[in-house]
Write a structure and sequence with these properties.
Elements lengths: L12 E6 L3 E5 L5 E3 L13 H26 L8 E5 L5 H8 L3 E6 L5 H6 L4 E3 L13 E7 L8 H11 E12 L4 H11 L4 H6 L10 E2 L2 H10 L2 E9 L7 H6 L6 H13 L1 H6 L4 E8 L1
Parallel strand pairs: 4-5, 4-7, 5-6, 7-8
Antiparallel strand pairs: 1-2, 2-3, 3-9, 8-11, 10-11
Helix pairs in contact: 1-2
Bound molecules: zinc ion.
The site of zinc ion has 8 residues, from loops.
């Protein structure tokens, strides 16, 4: 793959720094881009039980915000909404849809959650989009990415496939971390001071599926406009549930309890700053023009 020009605006990329992989920046649209590769041999080192405690409540609260906006924007549709989630992971979004009388099929390359999907009667197809995508006559009412879009190498080909699979008035929903967010900026500052671990973690360079791109609001819209999608709304989502920060921090196997306690306290002290800062996650709603 070519890493010399920006996948959003086509202008040249400049190397910013090297962690496990190189990170480049577009001087024109400020996209951050990496030359990371998907590694099938890698095992994720997240402790799944503490991750679940820390993450589930937060995820569900964010999903409730997305569902509400989806229903607002599709209020004119009388029949049941039918959607597709690309990279459905554990299936929490699919469960949220079912609880809200929305039909949604998931596509997932990994089989680690297959047992959970089956046990809970979730509709999941295994493999990569668009190869295994179940065709829907008339197209989907919505296609959603929850923390997945930033992992995809060829975003331009992807968006063209999405155009084909969406209904004429279908919505593209992208829930994604932002390069302008408080924690990303903090990690960048730490990197400048010689501490690389947080920035490596933000890019997920130690996981088998690292981030390929880090967007801000403007270049996210620019990418979709290039493919004739108009932005209907952008909402801020929460990164932290202040009641379960410690579980989140402990979910990383590399961290000890003393350090986790210290970080938890530091984050609680900083709460007023964090909740008023630029959000670390946003969700975008686009429609075909
Ligand atoms: Zn660019």
């Amino acid at each position: 793959m070519d890493h010399s020009s920006c996948p959003v605006c086509g202008k040249p990329l400049t190397q910013l720094y090297k962690l496990r992989f190189n990170v480049y920046r577009c001087n024109s649209c400020a996209l951050l881009h990496s030359d990371a590769e998907f590694e099938h041999s890698f095992e994720s080192d997240l402790e799944s039980t503490s991750r679940d405690i820390g993450l589930k409540q937060l995820r569900l609260a964010n999903f409730a915000i997305i569902i509400k906006e989806l229903q607002n924007l599709k209020a004119s549709k009388n029949t049941r909404l039918e959607g597709l989630e690309i990279g459905c992971g554990n299936g929490w979004w699919l469960e949220t849809c079912r609880a809200n009388d929305i039909e949604c099929t998931g596509i997932e390359p990994e089989h680690i959650y297959e047992h959970y999907h089956k046990e809970n009667g979730l509709n999941v197809v295994y493999g990569f989009y668009p190869e295994v995508s179940p065709a829907k006559k008339g197209g989907y009412d919505f296609i959603i990415f929850n923390d997945v879009f930033e992992h995809i190498p060829d975003i331009n080909t992807l968006v063209e496939s999405l155009r084909k699979d969406l209904a004429e008035d279908g919505l593209l929903v992208i829930n994604i971390p932002m390069s302008t967010g408080f924690f990303y900026r903090l990690a960048t500052l730490q990197h400048k001071l010689g501490q690389n671990s947080n920035l490596t973690r933000m890019w997920q360079f130690n996981f088998h599926s690292p981030h390929m791109n880090y967007f801000n609001e403007q270049n996210m819209k620019l990418l979709l406009e290039k493919h004739q999608f108009g932005c209907l709304s952008v909402l801020r989502l929460n990164t932290l549930d202040f009641n379960s920060i410690k579980e989140r921090i402990l979910a990383d196997k590399g961290i000890n309890k003393v350090k986790a306690t210290f970080m938890t306290t530091a984050i609680k002290v900083l709460k007023p700053v964090i909740v008023n800062a630029e959000p670390d996650i946003k969700v975008f709603f686009f429609r075909k023009k």
